[in-house]
Design goal:
This protein has 546 residues and is mainly α. It contains 25 helices and 5 strands. It has 2 domains: 179 residues, Serine Threonine Protein Phosphatase 5, Tetratricopeptide repeat, CATH 1.25.40; 226 residues, Tetratricopeptide repeat domain (Serine Threonine Protein Phosphatase 5, Tetratricopeptide repeat). It has a 3-stranded antiparallel sheet, with no helix packed on it.
């Protein structure tokens, strides 16, 4: 057994961080998407390759990743790298964190928690991803069995950390192991109630057990656990990060604003930290903040990739959210640039994601009403079910709006063939074709079935997971039918799910005016005017205003 002196030091660590968006590597288990909703591709960090990447002259002033206290029995030389790894781990910069933990292992081969840390980088609880084999291989480098690894721990608390990670990667299916890990962290929390790291990882373990989608009870439990850490250490990256995830829905998002405002300053070098703040901003309709956060996230990510000699990510998670923010602000030229670069990256095979392209194409067409654009923004999205469904729906919807019923019916048939994976989109397009055929009752019944199906699904964070929100489309159809009171109700339901989404606000303004509620119509128009104060010249005059 190793014998190291304990160093209970408080670290305010400065480090450069990494974030790039890539698909989950082979060997990872990934949860299947919910039927009827296009899968969101989670942002993950790209590996910097063997060794520690050199820091360029431009990055000599490193940006901090937060402040934590995590005393260990590791050597004084290895401890800063371990702390850096934990800070990166809290910001989901997994690959860079693994590099830091491996550096700690190199400097102190008997440092038990350095192997714990690397193993933790292979579990991505909020994205339902896990590479159990890689984690077990990392642990095996410390010692071949759980018992032997426990013997390497320098303190009782370190043995408890190792026992928790053994539960996470033990026997049984992943969901059962997630609960085992949460229970192990609960026991640790009960033994060490004042330890911020134990408490933060315990909060995260609760989030990792929400397997069927967003479980509000579990998310509120996680928030209640993390809040005291954030109160006592407002520079703690994990506390701020996990609070944002806990409050990431339109009902609870206002509670997450303090953490969102803080997190970007806590970890300015972590691209994921910069992006995460926009989860709260989207859920509250704060579009200027959505754009600002994702511009920074994209730039931090790509600057780090440039240091590593890698191409930028131009068609990924941050690009997609950024384009959505631009569209809400009426900055169509900026949204178009983001869309164009994404399409080029996909066509050139330089890291573009078919799922992100299909989402961005859909939003560019559906949220602007530029129906002719669908035929111009073509790309190969085969091999991605969610991308294909969004792509075909957008093509069919735009064709119907242009009077090309043959193409619309062909796309509806394609969606029908993939109905198990995209029932909501199939219902929506079928309903619009029924409306075109004059069967109004059938059309409305189909749209109401679609809204009921969307409401039955777990709530999804971020831009609407259903690429044409069902209540919004129902409202537009009711508005077209001059059923104004019903349209008002539909648009208000849409806005409850996606606050301050501008297509829904435009519809609500028209519906309220049609219903004779001029006060509400004027209030909504004033809100749109405020949102669009920096829109492209002529945007509102082009028919986008209420």
């Amino acid at each position: 057994m190793s014998t190291h002196r304990t160093f209970p030091i408080r670290f305010a660590v400065l480090a450069a961080a990494l974030a790039a968006v890539v698909a989950a590597p082979s060997g990872w288990s990934v949860a299947a998407p919910v039927a009827g909703v296009a899968a969101a591709v989670p942002p993950t960090a790209t590996a910097p390759g063997p060794g520690v990447a050199p820091v360029s002259a431009a990055a000599t002033q490193e940006a901090k990743l937060g402040t934590i206290e995590f005393p260990t029995s590791g050597s004084a030389e290895a401890q800063p790298h371990f702390i850096r790894g934990v800070l990166l781990l809290h910001s989901f910069e997994y690959e860079d964190a693994a590099t830091a933990f491996r550096e700690a292992q190199r400097l102190d081969p008997d440092f038990a928690l350095a192997y714990w840390g690397e193993a933790m980088t292979y579990n991505h609880p909020l994205w339902a991803q896990q590479d159990r084999d890689a984690a077990l291989e990392a642990l095996a480098r410390l010692a071949p069995t759980p018992e032997a690894r426990a013997a390497e721990a320098g303190t009782d608390k370190e043995r408890a950390w190792l026992a928790a990670v053994e539960a996470l990667y033990g026997e049984g299916d992943k969901q059962a192991r997630d609960y085992d890990y949460r229970d192990a962290m609960r026991r640790m929390h009960e033994s060490y109630p004042g330890d911020h790291e134990v408490t933060a990882f315990y909060a995260l373990s609760w989030l990792g057990t929400s397997h069927g989608g967003r479980d509000f009870a579990k998310y509120m439990r996680a928030a209640a656990i993390a809040e005291p850490v954030f109160d006592e250490n407002p520079d703690h990256p994990g506390a701020a990060h996990y609070l944002i995830h806990s409050y990431d829905d339109p009902i609870h998002a206002p509670l997450g604003l303090p953490a969102a405002r803080a997190y970007s300053k806590i970890a300015p070098a972590a691209a994921h930290a910069q992006h995460m703040t926009s989860h709260i901003f989207v859920a509250t309709g704060m579009w200027d903040d959505v754009v600002a956060a994702n511009e920074v996230a994209r730039n931090v990510q790509n600057a780090r990739l440039a240091e590593l000699g890698r191409p930028p990510v131009d068609c990924g998670h941050y690009n997609s959210w950024l384009q959505y923010g631009y569209l809400q602000l009426g900055q169509i030229q900026a949204a178009t640039r983001e869309m164009t670069v994404c399409r080029e990256a996909l066509q050139e095979g330089s890291g573009g994601s078919a799922a992100y392209f299909a989402n961005m194409r859909a939003r560019q067409v559906l949220d602007t009403g530029d129906w002719a654009l669908a035929a111009k923004l073509t790309a190969d999205v085969s091999g991605s079910g969610g991308a294909r469904a969004n792509y075909d729906f957008t093509t069919g919807f735009a064709a119907l709006k242009l009077g090309d019923l043959d193409t619309a019916r062909r796309m509806a048939a394609a969606l029908e063939g993939a109905r198990e994976g995209a029932p909501i989109l199939a219902l929506e397009l079928d309903a619009m074709l029924a409306l075109e055929d004059g069967t109004i009752d059938e059309a409305l019944a189909g749209l109401r079935e679609a809204t009921a199906l969307e409401e039955s699904l777990p709530f999804e964070f971020g831009p609407p997971a259903v690429i044409k929100p069902t209540h919004e489309l129902l409202g537009e159809v009711l508005l077209q039918l001059e059923r104004y009171d019903e349209a008002v109700a539909a648009f208000e339901q849409a806005l409850a799910r996606a606050p301050r989404r501008t297509p829904s606000l435009v519809g609500l303004a028209h519906a309220a005016a049609g219903a004779g509620d001029t006060l509400k119509a004027d209030e909504i128009r004033a809100e749109l005017h405020e949102i669009w104060r920096n829109a492209d010249p002529g945007f509102a005059a082009a028919g986008h205003g209420g």
